[in-house]
Design goal:
Largest sheet: 5 strands, mixed
Number of strands: 5
Radius of gyration: 14 Å
CATH class: Alpha Beta
Strand order of the largest sheet: 2-1-3-4-5
CATH superfamily: Cytidine Deaminase, domain 2
Length: 142
């Protein structure tokens, strides 16, 4: 593994700088770290029709899957905040939809990645399974 917790957090922070958030001004970046050392990032993309907005984690998962990435997801870093103050305040955690998207991505590699949610004075560290207990997955469709 060539990425570290700190490099994944830095990649998420860089991604947040690229967010398209003209309505809320709230920038979110996510970085996905894989077992082979690969890092894929995403930033939130807002839309005037708020329901069409894409979260940073969803963008990162979409990028990974569209590039046919099916490797073992081992780490996720998420950071957010107002433009110019990303990372200030409390840690930002993935929303429910993003937890579901990350859960399915992790299941492809049979992993339970560590999720780092970055805040001003703390980094919340949890296993994805702790963020999404009793998740819905493909086995429920059988």
């Amino acid at each position: 593994m060539s990425w570290t917790r700190d490099s994944l957090i830095a990649a998420a922070r860089d991604a947040a700088d690229k967010a398209y958030a003209p309505y809320s001004g709230f920038h979110v970046g996510a970085a996905l770290g894989f077992a082979d050392g690969s890092v894929i990032t995403g930033a939130n993309v807002e839309n005037a029709s708020y329901g069409l907005t894409l979260c940073a984690e969803t963008v990162a998962v979409g990028k990974a899957l569209s590039e046919q990435w099916r490797g073992k997801l081992e780490g996720v870093a998420v950071i957010g905040g107002k433009a110019g103050a990303v990372g200030a305040g409390n840690p930002v955690t993935p929303c429910g939809r993003c937890r579901q998207m990350l859960g399915e991505m992790a299941a492809l590699g049979d992993s339970d990645p560590t999720v780092w949610c970055i805040g001003e004075s703390e980094v919340l560290e949890l296993a994805l399974s702790a963020l999404l207990p009793h998740s819905f997955g493909p086995e429920a469709l059988a």
